[in-house]
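Internal QA ticket QA-208
Title: Verify multi-chain structure generation after dependency bump
Assignee: T.L.

Test input:
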Amino acid sequence: MKKIKVDLVSRIEGHGNIYIELSNNKLKNIRFEVFEGPRLFETLVLEKTPEEVLNIVCRICAICNVSHRYSAIRALEKIGNIKVPKEITLLRDLAHYGEMLESHSLHLFFLSLPDFLGFPDAVSMAEKFPELVQIGLKIKKFGNSLMEKILGRIMHGENMIIGGFGRYLTLEELSNIKKEAEKLLPEAIKAWEITHDLHYTTFGEESMLFVCLKPPTDEYGFWGDEVLISNGEEYPVEKFYSFIEEKILPYSSAKHSYYQNRPYMVGALARMSLLGERLHNASAEAFKKSYSLSWIRNPLYNNLAQAIEIIFSLEKVISTTEELLKGLSSLKETSLTYQKFNGKAVGSVEAPRGTLFHYYEFKNKKCVKANLIIPTAQNYASIEQHLKTCVCNIIKKFGTKEEEMIKEAEKIIRAYDPCISCSCHIVKTS
Amino acid sequence: MDKEKKLKIGFYEFSGCAGDLLTIIHNEDYLLKVWNSAEIISFRLATSKRDEKANLDIAFVEGSITAEEQIEELRKIREKSRILIALGTCASFGGLQSMYSHLGDFSSRFNSIYPHKFTILKPIESKPLESYVKVDYFIPGCPIDFKLFLFNFTRLLRNLPVELPSYPVCIECKWQENNCLLLKKIPCLGPLTRAGCQARCPTHNLPCVGCFGPYEDLNLPSWLKTLQENNIPFKELEKKIRMFFGVKVKEILSKLKNKK
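Actual output:
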């Protein structure tokens, strides 16, 4: 029996190990072990007011703090029966595109592409591919600046509140955002071309089940109140949320999620595969050129799907700022008081790495129950399934070549863009 | 700078949101300069290259300690580092996850969420680094402010001590020419919280949540008087203080009670 262990996989968010067990040159066992220290967020929000819940939940994760805040707001506004003007939603979406740009460019250029191009990190990659790293830095900076201008800080900005915003950015800031996005768009297309031309190994190929939110219009988008599944089914979020089965595993401080006993994948690859036909302009062209049937079998294409979502997000920043330039001045600083705040609801958005569900129950303006289902927790079972297929195929082709196994296994894990802190800090309250 | 003379620096992370290390990664204009000004021995979030054996001049440590295994790991980092810096509010005071540490009922809270047995970690009540090892300096913030980090990073490269603003958020709030939220009867933690964020929340008409942790040299009588005059109940603020002040809550509340 041979045991292979990779302690603390680098260039991923959080703490995770790969564990491979071989017997007679056959794979006996493979695990992706995650062991983040628990933070017990569901207890932290108890007894808190809706505003205080927002102060807390964005801090689950620094990379996708806007998605956590946005999901929570969507749940809380359902509970409080609070309707917001269209411009507020547009401004929230603009911050959310900022997060997509920040998170995708961080993952694609700095965490994932070094694997494909053979470097330990982006700084060493910059010596041979200076332009690529520069594009990555520029897009990431732009995404962060969107969040900083709209939310008050690049992460954990408190400005997005129930009912609206504490303060609005100026029309001048808004038109600068538009100009900047227009300047970046050709560079994002160049980055997609490079990502499109990469060699995607096929060791981990295996049929997959995709899940994402269905946008309320017939456009591509990052939120909705219905869930789409690649087997053709559709459900309201509350219903799908109740279908998710969570399994506890002794070697993981995060649960693994299943739908009808099957692992499923959420994230850019799932969204592109289910909604790609809804794209327009440059992102539509990129999708048509890149999409193939391998996408529904190979998680490595999540990288390419993210490159297309970067183009989409920049295009949406341009069109959204255009709309907001007309309507922004009608908005007033929000100061909300409510007599009653009772009930329960699920709020959902697409975080960069997949569908995020926030469930809250309130009694007399105080939170009495919370449960959050995180994209990475939903992806673990799918990650392990592909790791297994990958290692079996490598053994078939090369025998038990340890170096090759580890390299390809790490590539698959990174392609899923796991956010381990997020996934471990939240598990369902029994 | 000559490579031999470059300081050896490591970045480490325990339980938290990774926001402090990300704040460093997210400052594109300076990232390469920070990277090249020192010898980076470990920065797992950014690079596969790492050396676990090398001694360090400076260790920057993010996150609080929430499992027994982390205590050992932290001690190892301490042993090999000349200077250890708590980076962010979790590492400095325990962070959000230390909100209930005063209640002492960790196992029942833990079991309410994780009813199964944990085999990979022994979870414990969240505590800041200082509860286990000597911490040379604190750079608080949730997340840290990059300018404050960079200012201190360059000081450290020149062997100077870390320096933090020695005044509360209110001072920065005045520099922004904001109207005081307490006078509008909005419970704001500005007077109790260390400056360093440029008073971002009050500048957005939102109360300070105290995410930089406590400023120790408070004018408590004056603050309590302002609360009284504006009919803001102390209890409302007490709950808010608990959110980010971690293990420092006890000390502050007892000071407040004495003054009341």
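Spot checks passed. Residues 24 and 146 of chain B are 7 Å apart (CA to CA).
Status: verified.
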